[in-house]
Amino acid sequence: MSPGPEPATGRVLVVDDEKPLARMVAAYLARAGHDVAVVHTGPEAVEAARLRAPDVVVLDLGLPGLDGIEVCRRVRRFSSCYVLMLTARGDEDDVLAGLDAGADDYVVKPFSVRELVARVAAVLRRPRTALPAAAPVRTVGGVVVDLGAREARVDGTPVALTPTEFDLLAALTAEPHRALSRRHLIDAVWGPSWVGDERLVDVHIAHLRRKLGGAPAAVVETVRGIGYRMAVR
Questions:
Q1: Is there a contact between 189 and 167 (Cβ–Cβ < 8 Å)?
Q2: Do β-strands 105-108 and 56-60 pair in parallel, antiparallel, or remain unpaired?
Q3: Which of 63, 71, 110, 130 has the most crowded CB, counting CB atoms within 10 A?
Q4: CA 66, 70, 75 angle in degrees (round to 5)?
Q5: Is 66 helix (H, G, I), strand (E, B) or coil?
Q6: Residue 68 in contact with residue 85, Cβ under 8 Å?
Q7: pLDDT per position in the chain (233 positions), as tens?
Q8: Which DSSP state fits 134?
Q9: How far is the C-alpha of 178 from the C-alpha of 18, rounded, in Å?
């Protein structure tokens, strides 16, 4: 029997002012093979993200110095790393504010540390499907998506997308004109095991629309009662 694929590992920054919890999360992540650093305040988080260039930041919302929302905003100015937000409550406003600031995903406390480690592994495995030797370049209207380079351009101008925004755009342009449900997009981007509020998709689609705003002849349309589609005017 052949061994399974090697787990994806990377640099992970854990940011939480609950030191015992931060140490436990870090220990589990290190056991899974990740290179882990831990900080406990907002200002430390921004500095560590700048110096260490992590692949993933596990970020608590309630931090001293700067809260997690502001940390996320500042990190997004110089990094496209994945941000996995921790919120102490299932408070809808907290979740939406964090996603709007640029977080890719969220976990509500109390949480299973194993689930958190699995979420980190899932984002590090993106893209989950192997690309062909000559990765395709897709053009939909004025939007060009280069899957190999993981770059998007609008009317020839590069567009700065987060990894999650790029993966959403890739999923939408894979089947232009077809209405894709939120669940379909979650399975394609976050993975079929993801569980949570599907409005997560809506927030990232809003960001994507704003960044593609100048695209000639192409638009991400809302399909009422279903989800979204990439359409050409």
A1: yes
A2: unpaired
A3: 71
A4: 110
A5: coil
A6: yes
A7: 444 445 568 999 999 999 999 999 999 999 999 999 999 999 999 999 999 999 999 999 889 999 999 999 999 989 989 999 988 765 677 778 888 888 988 888 888 898 899 889 888 876 544 444 456 888 888 889 998 888 999 888 898 888 889 999 999 998 888 999 999 999 988 888 787 778 889 989 998 988 888 555 568 889 988 999 988 76
A8: S
A9: 45
CA torsion through residues 228, 211, 127, 7, sign = negative
Written as one letter, the residue type at 71 is V
Q: What is the sign, positive or negative, of the torsion defined by CA atoms of 180, 116, 122, 152?
A: positive
- The Cα–Cα gap between 222 and 215 comes to 17
Question: Tokens representing 159?
Answer: 């567009």
Task: Read off the tokens for 74.
Answer: 């500042």
Question: If you ran DSSP here, which 8-state letter would residue 5 be given?
Answer: P
Backbone φ and ψ for 158, nearest 5 degrees, come out as -60, 145
